[in-house]
């Protein structure tokens, strides 16, 4: 039985989309801002849950 050559690899980057090259038009929020907003939202939900 002949051994098939399975050492062929696909070209690097084939079919991959490079998202960091695309500029979005949405708001720019720093990672610290996201963490702070999440903490504030969590505290707000906690207060609303126990305010009955």
What does this entry look like structurally?
- This protein starts with 30 loop residues before the first helix and ends with a helix.
- It has one domain.
- It has one helix spanning 31-49.
- It contains 1 helix and no strands.
- With 52 residues, it is mostly helical.
- The longest helix has 19 residues, at 31-49.
- It is elongated.
- The mean pLDDT is 77.
Entry keywords:
single chain, 52 residues, mainly alpha
Brief overview:
This protein has 52 residues and is mainly α. The chain has one helix spanning 31-49.
Question: Strands, helices and their partners?
Answer:
Elements: H1 31-49
Q: Structural class of the secondary elements?
A: mainly alpha
Radius of gyration: 25 Å
Number of distinct helices: 1
- How far apart are the first and last residues' alpha carbons, in Å? 77 Å
Q: How many E-type strands?
A: 0
**Largest sheet, strands/sense/barrel:** none
Low-confidence regions: none
Which whole number gives the mean pLDDT? 77
N-to-C series of helices and strands: H
The gross shape turns out to be elongated
Number of domains: 1
Q: DSSP strand (E) fraction?
A: under 5%
**Percent helix:** 25-40%
Organism: Methanobrevibacter arboriphilus JCM 13429 = DSM 1125
Main location: membrane
Protein name: Preprotein translocase subunit SecG
Subunit structure: Component of the protein translocase complex. Heterotrimer consisting of alpha (SecY), beta (SecG) and gamma (SecE) subunits. Can form oligomers of the heterotrimer.
